[in-house]
Design goal:
This protein is an alpha+beta fold. The chain contains four helices and nine strands, in the order βαβαβββββαββα. It has helices at residues 10-15, 30-37, 85-96, 127-149; strands at residues 4-8, 16-26, 41-42, 47-51, 54-58, 61-62, 79-82, 100-109, 115-124. It has a seven-stranded antiparallel beta sheet. Strands 3-6 form a two-stranded antiparallel sheet. The mean pLDDT is 86.
Protein backbone atom coordinates (compact mmCIF):
# COMPACT_ATOMS: atom_id res chain seq x y z
CA UNK A 1 0.00 0.00 0.00
CA UNK A 2 1.59 3.27 -1.08
CA UNK A 3 1.27 6.39 1.03
CA UNK A 4 2.08 9.96 0.10
CA UNK A 5 2.85 11.69 3.39
CA UNK A 6 1.48 15.23 3.63
CA UNK A 7 2.91 16.16 7.02
CA UNK A 8 4.21 14.63 10.24
CA UNK A 9 4.15 15.78 13.84
CA UNK A 10 7.77 15.42 14.97
CA UNK A 11 7.05 17.34 18.17
CA UNK A 12 4.62 14.61 19.27
CA UNK A 13 7.44 12.04 19.44
CA UNK A 14 9.47 14.45 21.58
CA UNK A 15 6.67 15.49 23.95
CA UNK A 16 4.79 12.18 24.28
CA UNK A 17 5.39 8.47 24.71
CA UNK A 18 3.39 6.81 21.95
CA UNK A 19 1.46 3.79 23.26
CA UNK A 20 -0.55 2.84 20.15
CA UNK A 21 -1.47 4.26 16.73
CA UNK A 22 -4.48 3.88 14.46
CA UNK A 23 -5.48 5.06 11.00
CA UNK A 24 -8.58 7.24 10.77
CA UNK A 25 -10.44 8.98 7.98
CA UNK A 26 -11.19 12.70 8.11
CA UNK A 27 -14.08 14.81 6.82
CA UNK A 28 -12.76 17.61 4.57
CA UNK A 29 -14.08 20.09 2.03
CA UNK A 30 -12.85 20.16 -1.58
CA UNK A 31 -10.52 23.16 -1.25
CA UNK A 32 -8.97 21.63 1.88
CA UNK A 33 -8.06 18.50 -0.09
CA UNK A 34 -6.49 20.63 -2.84
CA UNK A 35 -4.50 22.50 -0.21
CA UNK A 36 -3.33 19.19 1.28
CA UNK A 37 -2.19 18.03 -2.17
CA UNK A 38 0.07 21.10 -2.15
CA UNK A 39 1.38 19.99 1.29
CA UNK A 40 -0.03 22.94 3.21
CA UNK A 41 -0.90 21.49 6.62
CA UNK A 42 0.49 21.67 10.14
CA UNK A 43 -0.18 19.11 12.90
CA UNK A 44 2.08 20.65 15.54
CA UNK A 45 -0.51 21.82 18.11
CA UNK A 46 -3.25 19.41 17.06
CA UNK A 47 -5.14 17.03 19.31
CA UNK A 48 -8.26 14.90 19.10
CA UNK A 49 -11.15 14.72 21.58
CA UNK A 50 -14.04 12.31 22.03
CA UNK A 51 -17.31 14.25 22.26
CA UNK A 52 -20.76 12.57 22.25
CA UNK A 53 -19.56 9.31 20.66
CA UNK A 54 -17.67 11.17 17.91
CA UNK A 55 -13.98 12.01 17.58
CA UNK A 56 -13.05 15.57 16.58
CA UNK A 57 -9.68 16.93 15.48
CA UNK A 58 -8.80 20.34 16.96
CA UNK A 59 -6.06 22.91 16.17
CA UNK A 60 -4.85 21.31 12.93
CA UNK A 61 -3.97 24.07 10.50
CA UNK A 62 -4.85 23.47 6.83
CA UNK A 63 -4.07 26.61 4.84
CA UNK A 64 -6.86 27.97 2.62
CA UNK A 65 -6.55 26.98 -1.04
CA UNK A 66 -5.52 30.03 -3.03
CA UNK A 67 -7.68 29.29 -6.10
CA UNK A 68 -10.90 28.47 -4.21
CA UNK A 69 -13.73 30.69 -5.42
CA UNK A 70 -16.64 31.09 -3.07
CA UNK A 71 -15.76 29.08 0.03
CA UNK A 72 -14.13 31.00 2.88
CA UNK A 73 -12.80 28.33 5.23
CA UNK A 74 -11.34 28.67 8.70
CA UNK A 75 -7.88 27.06 8.64
CA UNK A 76 -8.18 25.92 12.28
CA UNK A 77 -11.75 24.61 12.16
CA UNK A 78 -12.69 21.48 14.06
CA UNK A 79 -12.81 18.44 11.76
CA UNK A 80 -14.58 15.13 12.32
CA UNK A 81 -12.55 11.92 12.33
CA UNK A 82 -14.11 8.75 10.94
CA UNK A 83 -13.91 5.72 13.24
CA UNK A 84 -16.31 2.91 13.96
CA UNK A 85 -18.25 2.85 17.22
CA UNK A 86 -16.17 0.08 18.81
CA UNK A 87 -12.92 1.99 18.20
CA UNK A 88 -14.42 5.21 19.58
CA UNK A 89 -15.53 3.47 22.80
CA UNK A 90 -12.10 1.92 23.22
CA UNK A 91 -10.39 5.31 22.74
CA UNK A 92 -12.82 7.06 25.09
CA UNK A 93 -12.01 4.55 27.83
CA UNK A 94 -8.27 5.01 27.37
CA UNK A 95 -8.45 8.81 27.25
CA UNK A 96 -10.27 8.87 30.59
CA UNK A 97 -7.23 7.21 32.14
CA UNK A 98 -4.77 9.61 33.70
CA UNK A 99 -2.21 11.10 31.35
CA UNK A 100 -3.48 9.79 28.00
CA UNK A 101 -4.15 12.06 25.01
CA UNK A 102 -5.07 11.57 21.35
CA UNK A 103 -2.43 13.20 19.15
CA UNK A 104 -2.28 13.25 15.33
CA UNK A 105 1.17 12.07 14.22
CA UNK A 106 0.85 11.87 10.40
CA UNK A 107 -1.46 12.98 7.63
CA UNK A 108 -1.19 11.20 4.28
CA UNK A 109 -2.93 10.19 1.06
CA UNK A 110 -3.58 6.50 0.39
CA UNK A 111 -3.64 4.89 -3.07
CA UNK A 112 -7.36 5.60 -3.60
CA UNK A 113 -6.75 9.35 -3.12
CA UNK A 114 -8.35 9.59 0.33
CA UNK A 115 -6.77 11.52 3.18
CA UNK A 116 -5.97 9.56 6.34
CA UNK A 117 -4.75 10.70 9.74
CA UNK A 118 -2.58 8.54 11.97
CA UNK A 119 -3.87 9.09 15.49
CA UNK A 120 -1.69 8.12 18.46
CA UNK A 121 -2.73 7.24 21.97
CA UNK A 122 0.02 9.02 23.88
CA UNK A 123 1.15 9.72 27.41
CA UNK A 124 2.92 13.00 28.17
CA UNK A 125 6.64 12.90 29.00
CA UNK A 126 8.23 14.67 31.93
CA UNK A 127 11.13 17.05 31.35
CA UNK A 128 13.70 14.56 32.66
CA UNK A 129 12.37 11.88 30.26
CA UNK A 130 12.90 14.25 27.32
CA UNK A 131 16.47 14.95 28.44
CA UNK A 132 17.23 11.25 28.86
CA UNK A 133 15.90 10.52 25.36
CA UNK A 134 18.06 13.26 23.84
CA UNK A 135 21.17 11.91 25.61
CA UNK A 136 20.39 8.37 24.44
CA UNK A 137 19.90 9.49 20.82
CA UNK A 138 23.11 11.51 20.91
CA UNK A 139 25.14 8.58 22.25
CA UNK A 140 23.59 6.25 19.64
CA UNK A 141 24.66 8.67 16.89
CA UNK A 142 28.22 8.79 18.24
CA UNK A 143 28.42 4.99 18.37
CA UNK A 144 27.08 4.79 14.81
CA UNK A 145 29.74 7.28 13.63
CA UNK A 146 32.50 5.18 15.23
CA UNK A 147 31.27 2.05 13.45
CA UNK A 148 31.15 3.84 10.11
CA UNK A 149 34.69 5.20 10.46
CA UNK A 150 36.17 1.73 11.07
Amino acid sequence: MSKKIICTNKKAYHDYTIEATMETGIVLTGPEVKSLRAGRANLRDGYAAVEKDEVWLHNVHISPYSHATNIESDPLRTRKLLLNRREIRKLAGKVREKGFALIPTKMYFIASGKVKVELALARGKKQYDKRADLKRKQSDREIEREYKSR
